[in-house]
């Protein structure tokens, strides 16, 4: 029987037995949620301090970019691999391993004053990216049925909350303290979460069978590296550069080989047949588009308000103010995640995606005041919180319990690919339409409006995909293999 069969009787009813939360259950959720939040913070924490890092580390912009790229690339390999290891050897164990990577990698960065060891530290932090999908699975099997949906929704929303809170936190540190404090925050957060999980979170039985597919892991890792590296570096290399094109072609070939290999294995890294089910495939594709919209919110808000007023649209604000503009969106993501748990997952994904589109639509039309910018970003954040919180429910409905952690990891990977696409496409759009002010090339208002239109379109596509996801029923759950 699938995880969903143990959690709910029907998607469309959205009803679960009512009982109050116990103190222990709330503490378990708080501990796991803190772990997920700390890891989510690492994905946006360095963005506002990149220029300061370049000066302090005496490094070029290309070198500094590897502080973000290294985490992205390692995370792309770690997420599916740790998910499968969680199914085979215990989700709680792999959460602790990934949090250990957060602490170790952040400690290396906190003690570093040169570029090379800091890239090493950020690469180790990339292993910790698997914490969030693993935490989703852990909450799903440790909390009782009546609370698991709300817990899963909260942890899933942390992916967006961490990204939104990371910018103002980083802006605050950049203005009033040394950037090393950012890494120490991650060290302390990880050290607080680890003993809490060890002592308070029960160790669920292993659901997976078989053995680890190391060859498939290498194949998928190589494919993700070949895909994400040109997306991260394509603007510098040039999109028509042979290296960029060659890597993208290699990614396509490796993914085809990966699918063919996985189809022949008894214990694959990814059950391709299950993943190809319409419910799971459409959910993952919708996740990609929502991930696209979320990351474009980050790059299209903080930098937007920091642009000088002479551009005709910017407000000339500081890094701190730019980050604070994201804060209401992060808070509302957190507050609205329980609402998603009360809705049928499919319905929540549709509603959330349409709210995201509404938020970006307002960003296109309303450009006169800082309040309008914050309002649009907050609306998009609200939709993101609802949509992100809905996805694990859809995943659990279509996935056997023995593959749940791996399936959540694959879904997180789709979100990451969506964010990488947003970074690449958004960067290209903002670089293509510019104005010259004082010898500096700055994006035009039309460039930002085009980016927001792409985000609104991506959100609408996510809603359309969610609309055609097959409706869930308990009968469908029972038909899934163990």
From TrEMBL:
It comes from the Bacteria. Residues 28-474 form the Major facilitator superfamily (MFS) profile domain. InterPro entries: MFS, MFS_dom, MFS_trans_sf. It is found in: Cell membrane. The chain crosses the membrane at residues 26-51, 63-82, 94-113, 119-143, 150-169, 181-202, 214-231, 243-261, 281-307, 319-336, 348-366, 372-391, 412-432, 447-469. Its main location: membrane. Keywords: Membrane, Transmembrane, Transmembrane helix, Transport. The keyword Transmembrane applies. It is a multi-pass membrane protein. This is MFS transporter. It comes from Actinoplanes ianthinogenes.
């Amino acid at each position: 029987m699938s995880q969903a069969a143990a959690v709910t009787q029907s998607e469309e009813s959205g009803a679960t037995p009512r009982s109050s939360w116990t103190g222990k259950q709330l503490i378990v959720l708080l501990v796991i949620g803190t772990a997920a939040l700390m890891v989510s913070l690492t994905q946006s924490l360095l963005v506002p301090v990149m220029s300061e890092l370049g000066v302090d580390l005496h490094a070029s912009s290309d070198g500094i970019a590897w502080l973000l790229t290294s985490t992205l690339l390692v995370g792309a390999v770690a997420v599916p691999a740790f998910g499968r290891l969680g199914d085979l050897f215990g989700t709680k164990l792999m959460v602790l391993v990934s949090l250990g990577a957060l602490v170790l990698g952040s400690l290396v960065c906190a003690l570093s004053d040169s570029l090379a060891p800091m890239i090493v530290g950020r690469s180790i932090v990339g292993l910790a990216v698997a914490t969030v999908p693993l935490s989703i699975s852990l909450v799903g099997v440790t909390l009782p049925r009546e609370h698991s949906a709300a817990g899963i929704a909260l942890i899933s929303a942390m992916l967006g909350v961490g990204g939104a809170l990371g910018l103002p936190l980083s802006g605050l540190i950049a203005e009033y303290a040394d950037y090393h404090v950012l890494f120490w925050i991650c060290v302390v957060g990880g050290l607080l979460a680890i003993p809490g999980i060890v002592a308070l979170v029960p160790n669920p039985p292993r659901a997976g069978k078989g053995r680890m597919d190391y060859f498939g892991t290498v194949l998928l890792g190589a494919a993700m590296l070949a895909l994400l590296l040109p997306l991260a570096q394509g603007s510098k290399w040039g999109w028509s550069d042979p290296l960029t094109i060659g890597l993208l072609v290699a990614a396509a070939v490796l993914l085809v080989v990966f699918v063919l290999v996985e189809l022949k294995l008894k214990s694959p890294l990814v059950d391709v047949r299950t993943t190809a089910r319409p419910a799971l495939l459409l959910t993952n594709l919708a996740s990609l588009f929502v991930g696209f919209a979320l990351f474009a919110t980050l790059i299209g808000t903080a930098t937007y308000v920091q642009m000088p007023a002479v551009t005709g649209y910017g407000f000339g604000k500081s890094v701190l103010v730019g980050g604070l503009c994201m804060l209401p969106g992060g808070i509302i993501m957190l507050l609205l995640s329980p609402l998603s748990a009360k809705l049928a997952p499919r319905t929540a994904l549709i509603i959330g995606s349409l709210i995201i589109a509404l938020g970006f639509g307002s960003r296109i039309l309303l450009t006169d005041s800082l309040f309008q910018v914050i309002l649009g970003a907050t609306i998009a954040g609200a939709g993101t919180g609802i949509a992100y919180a809905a996805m694990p429910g859809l995943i659990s409905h279509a996935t056997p319990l023995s593959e749940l952690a791996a399936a959540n990891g694959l879904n997180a990977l789709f979100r990451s690919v969506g964010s990488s696409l947003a970074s690449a496409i958004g960067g290209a759009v903002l670089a293509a339409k510019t104005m010259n002010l004082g010898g500096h090339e700055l994006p035009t208002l039309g460039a930002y409006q085009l980016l927001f239109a792409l985000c609104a379109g991506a959100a609408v596509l996510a809603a359309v995909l969610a609309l055609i996801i097959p409706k869930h029923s308990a009968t469908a759950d029972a038909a899934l293999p163990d």
